[in-house]
Amino acid sequence: MRLTAKGRSSHAAHVHRGDSAIDKLIAAIAKIASLRDLAVKSPPEVLETIATASPVSEALSGDGESDVLRSVTVTFGTISGGRLPNLVSDSAEATADIRLPFGVTVAEIKTLIQSYVDSVDGVSVGYIQSYEPSWTSPESPIVQAVASCTQEVMGVTPVVNMRVGASDSRLYRATGHPTVVCGLTPNNMGAANEFVEAEELMCLGEVLTLAAFDFLNQEFVRPS
């Protein structure tokens, strides 16, 4: 989403004649950030899955990830505005990434955002893209096939968890097709020196190939 604030410029020596767009933007940002505290009523199966996976998930992705998976996340990624330090700003803009756990809808969040924006004169909001949260039950055959093949190839018992990432899985689920996402360990994701391990990449290719084979040939017993 993109927040845009409009104000009126004046010299810093005459602030009473100006109307700061940056001040307005800051006020709107503070209100929208409160979405992080929104109570979300996720289905029991979703909450149980997150809790079960927590020891492994947090060891890989850091303490607190399980809380993130149950909450609305709000990230303000860019902010800009003003012309000079000694001028009241007449325009300002910020972009934000908001991710929704299963249990809250896009419409609910947009309604709240609009009420926050409407409460600050001169601020408007636009949406770059939006889509509903979705999930597939851990008991789904496609999930079980991938989990089984992961254990076979890598020799470890995988945990099944929810994510707040965005992928094309939502397009399949929207048409009624259960979908699972299985990828590489995202070492330093979004930070300096982000990398994946080549050996794990090869394993993943084998896992996905065997899982697709098993899922599409449920009655066929693959030779050991």
Structural class: alpha+beta
Shape: elongated
> Which strand order spans the largest sheet, edge to edge or round the barrel?
2-3-1-4
Low-confidence stretches: none
CATH architecture classification of the largest domain: 2-Layer Sandwich
Helices and strands, in order, run as EHHHEEHEHHH
CATH class of the largest domain: Alpha Beta
Helix content: 25-40%
- N-to-C span: 51 Å
Strand content: 5-15%
Radius of gyration: 23 Å
Mean pLDDT: 92
**Individual helix count:** 7
Overall number of strands: 4
Number of domains: 2
Helices and strands in order, then pairings?
Blueprint lengths: L1 E5 L14 H13 L10 H18 L3 H5 L3 E9 L9 E9 L6 H13 L4 E4 L14 H14 L14 H6 L23 H19 L8
Antiparallel strand pairs: 1-3, 1-4, 2-3
Please describe what this structure looks like.
- 39% of the residues lie in helices and 12% in strands.
- The chain contains seven helices and four strands.
- A four-stranded antiparallel beta sheet has the order 2-3-1-4.
- α5 packs across α7 (198-216).
- It folds into two domains: 2-126, 2-Layer Sandwich (Alpha-Beta Plaits), CATH 3.30.70.360; 141-216, DNA polymerase, domain 1, CATH 1.10.150.
Short description:
This protein has helices spanning 21-33, 44-61, 65-69, 106-118, 141-154, 169-174, 198-216; strands spanning 2-6, 73-81, 91-99, 123-126. The protein has 224 residues and is an alpha+beta fold. The chain folds into two domains: 2-126, Alpha-Beta Plaits (2-Layer Sandwich), CATH 3.30.70; 141-216, DNA polymerase, domain 1, CATH 1.10.150.
